[in-house]
Amino acid sequence: MLFQIILIIFILVIFRKQRIEMVKTEAKKELIFCLLWLLFYFILAVIGNAYHIDIINEISNWLFFVLFPLLLITWLRKENMTKVLKDMGLRCFDKATIINLSLICVFYIIIIVLVFSFGEEATNTFTLESISKIVVSFPIWFALMLCTAAFTEEFFFRGLLQKYMTDFWHRPYLAILLTSVLFGLYHFPFAYYLWDETAGSVIASLQMVMMEQAISGIACGLIYYKCKQNLWSSIVLHACTNAIIMSLGVAFSGM
Fold first, then answer.
1. At what angle do helices 231-253 and 95-117 cross, to 10 degrees?
2. CA distances (Å), 247 to each of 203, 227, 239, in order?
3. What tens digit of pLDDT does each residue of 142-190 get?
4. What CA–CA distance (Å, rounded) separates 68 from 65?
5. Of 73, 44, 36, 76, nearest to 60 (Cα)?
6. 113: helix, coil or strand?
7. Which of 31, 46, 111, 248 is deepest in the core (most CB within 10 A)?
């Protein structure tokens, strides 16, 4: 949780002068659809994990979080798909955003590596060899995360859910908070059924997803909002976060 809080503070500092112009639009139908769709996905995840049925995975997430929602939202809005994608934030960066986002990602990676390097787990394993493993594996994990969890989850939670909450209530920080809570709860079936440290415990699972995933969701939601709702910003940050954690895991596991 400490890492995520530091990340949130850094985002607020970097983008402290950023002024966001709110465009008031109605999005009631789209928001209701997103919430119902998330409930449907949550039920599928519970059933799949409880009975060991491979319903939810990185491939099916493209259907549940990207393709089906995109088609239905396009139908609800009766607009061209290209316009819907652009409204969600799939567009090019400006130079200032690229610089700010790069600073945040580099800073976050350095903080995580430094904290791990001084931790008890890394005392005997954080060597020149482990550093080289991180350097080699990070781009691979980043590419994988960019094409899987980072894209699909950010597409739905920030590009659809957070955007439509913001459009409907016109209160962006409330939208960020609520979307992040739902983002945390989305991970609950996995925490309860699959993760070793929380499996079988409702309390431990809720604590984990609220303290880790929900706070990470706030960071992604903030970067999405502060970068003028450019979806690539939260996708890149999400992929970067997952990639450095996976790379450290590879380095410390001796793989």
1. 20
2. 29, 27, 12
3. 999 999 999 999 999 999 999 999 999 889 999 999 999 999 999 999 9
4. 7
5. 44
6. helix
7. 248
* C-beta of residue 65 within 8 angstroms of C-beta of residue 45: no
- 34 burial (CB, 10 Å; 0-12 / 13-18 / 19+) is buried
- Unique residue bearing structure tokens 């781009």: 139
**In this structure, what token pair is assigned to residue 253?**
């596991």
Number of Cβ within 10 Å of residue 5's Cβ equals: 12
Average pLDDT, the chain: 90
| Structural tokens at position 243 | 């990639």
Q: What is the DSSP letter of 119?
A: S
CA 56/CA 70 separation, integer angstroms:
18
Q: Three-state SS for 107?
A: helix
Exposed (0-12), middle (13-18) or buried (19+): which is 141, by Cβ within 10 Å?
buried
Q: Which of 69, 81, 42 is nearest to 164 (CA)?
A: 69
Give residues with Cβ within 8 angstroms of 170, minimum separation 6: 22, 24
Q: Quick check: pTM over 0.85? A: yes
* Residue 115 burial (10 A CB sphere; 0-12, 13-18, 19+): middle
Among candidate residues 237, 209, 244, 243, the one with its CA nearest the CA of residue 11: 237
Contact 162, 221 (CB under 8 A): yes
Q: Which amino acid is at 111?
A: I
What tokens does 112 get? 């995580």
How many residues belong to the chain?
255
Q: Which amino acid is at 127?
A: T
Residue with structure tokens 């990676």? 109
